[in-house]
TrEMBL record:
GO terms for biological process: abscisic acid metabolic process; sterol metabolic process. Signal peptide: none annotated. InterPro entries: Cyt_P450 (IPR001128), Cyt_P450_E_grp-IV (IPR002403), Cyt_P450_sf (IPR036396). This is Abscisic acid 8'-hydroxylase 1-like. The chain crosses the membrane at residues 6-24. Keywords: Iron, Membrane, Metal-binding, Transmembrane, Transmembrane helix.
Amino acid sequence: MESKSLCYVFATLIFSYFVLKHILKFLSSGKVKLSLPPGSMGWPYIGETFQLYSQNPNTFFASKIKRYGSIFKTRILGCNCVMISSPEAAKLVLVTKSNLFKPTFPASKERMLGKQALFFHQGDYHAKLRKLVLRAFMPEAIKKIVPEIESVALSTLESWDGRSITTYQEMKTYTFNVAMLSILGEDEVLYREDLKRCYHILEKGYNSMPINLPGTLFHKSMKARKELAQILAKIISLRRQKKRDHSDLLGTFMNDTEGLTEEQIADNIIGVIFAARDTTASVLTWILKYLGENASVLQAVTEEQEGIMKFKEELGEEKVLNWSDTKKMPITTRVIQETLRVASILSFTFREAVEDVEFDVLVTHYAIAFRKMTRGNIPHKEVDVIK
Ligand code: HEM
């Protein structure tokens, strides 16, 4: 009996301690602390990774938004997240309170792309790499590869002859080939097949759980990533022996006066392929879809393109596209710009709250993943691209 009452006393003391602690905290903060947004964290560690990646991400978002509203919590790739999809919340994270958030990615992506890739950094290192990447894609650097890009486009079109294709997959192959050209220049030819094979294995693991055990997608990806870095090291050593200057991305990285390590170069090259390839392939796929749906615009673009070649023929010039030709495509340019405006390219991206942030709900050291506004939830106005 005595031991039972002792237990009651002890339990009451513990209960009182917690109640008192919360009352004191409440009084000292002077305001009621909001709670985390509604949602489900799914399985321990794995969370709701499979629900998100095994279907169209829009289906995942639509069902969550219907159930919990535009801000909800979840766990993706081992990362506790608050997902937001309202323009007001996105503006707060990206603009008005951007100082309270830093760029982040789930650990699996960081390990696959490499810790030294610019996406995972801020400050001087980030600014320096951003400048180098921009330099390699400025008109001065890409002007001279326009004929080669055209040749990649023509051989891609030829490879479609007589077969039905999955547009997005074909666009991914095309953008990979163009990316290789602008990143490695003529050296890509030497290792083209190996680069393609490794990258293909690597991308299969992008959205996998970071479980590095033989047989897992993540393990295979990490092996392919290692091989990619070895190929890049071979190209770097070849370039150092030949001592020739290159204006492609690898050349720009290698010429940096302060010097980047091989690891920094490899991580950023793999990172830029990751940033450039699927995004561009997606834009191209949307362009084809919109052109297919708008016969008059398709005709205007076709006439504009054919007109450029006809003009060359009349002048007796070689029928190869060059930089100045790309300046004579106002309708094509407007189609690209309008597609970028209305299409949904990135489903979502990540930020990490560096301290507690409150906006209707509490976001406490959670990674925030946002969904880019889709056509359905941004004010959308059709624009006539021909006029
Ligand atoms: C038209 C297709 C593209 C779209 C829609 C797109 C979209 C984006 C978006 C939304 C971000 C910001 C992500 C965030 O803040 O979390 C970003 C970052 C980035 N993109 Fe693109 N991108 C495209 C093409 C490219 C290409 C072709 C390259 C290659 C040069 C590239 C390289 C980068 C890099 C390096 C970053 C990181 C910038 C930084 O951390 O400061 N992107 N892109």
